[in-house]
Write the structure tokens for this entry.
Amino acid sequence: MQRAGRQLNKVQHEYEPDDWKPMPSIGPGACEIRIHTANEYRVIYVAKFPMKVYVLHAFEKKTQKTNPKALDLARRAINKCCRDARIYPMTRKESTLIKITKSTGNVFQDLGFPPAQAANLALRSELMDSLLSIVTRRRLDKAQAAKLFGVKTSRVDDLKKGHIERLTLDNLCEMLIRAGVAVKITLSPKKTRAA
């Protein structure tokens, strides 16, 4: 779930996921994020609507071919998203078939992580984006990036592959500082609803 959240967080901030492919058979703008762990996972999403990313379906892939039921569910979900985005009107019956849940603003919390862990993961994801931006801007290969960040090349691999679970806030802050980036965390009180 952490890796899926990392990839969706990248999409939310207009970066490409690490491993993805378009899924035109599902609908226009549909894409599939591929997550490789001991098991294979897929997240099908669409980000073609202004200011919105819709997650259509997420599932474990157990065979080489994607389960037709998973594809059908994603197709029905993209139709609902098109209606939600006001691309075409939605009937009352269609509106009850698939539920659209509004984001909290933190994709990790939306995936079910407790608030404190979700905030930690979102911050780690943001720091990872900053480090990857340095690698891209400076055109660093893996060995150069490892030297600059003061880490082993395996840590750079973790960074590039989105292995958020292997990188702590301490690791990421130290890597940024070694690269000459000042790291500052701004605290603000949590907004609460009035009684």
User: Anything to note?
Assistant: The beta strands are 20-22, 30-36, 40-46, 54-61. Residues 87-97 have pLDDT under 50 and may be disordered. The first strand starts at residue 20 and ends at 22. Residues 115-137 form the longest helix (23 residues).
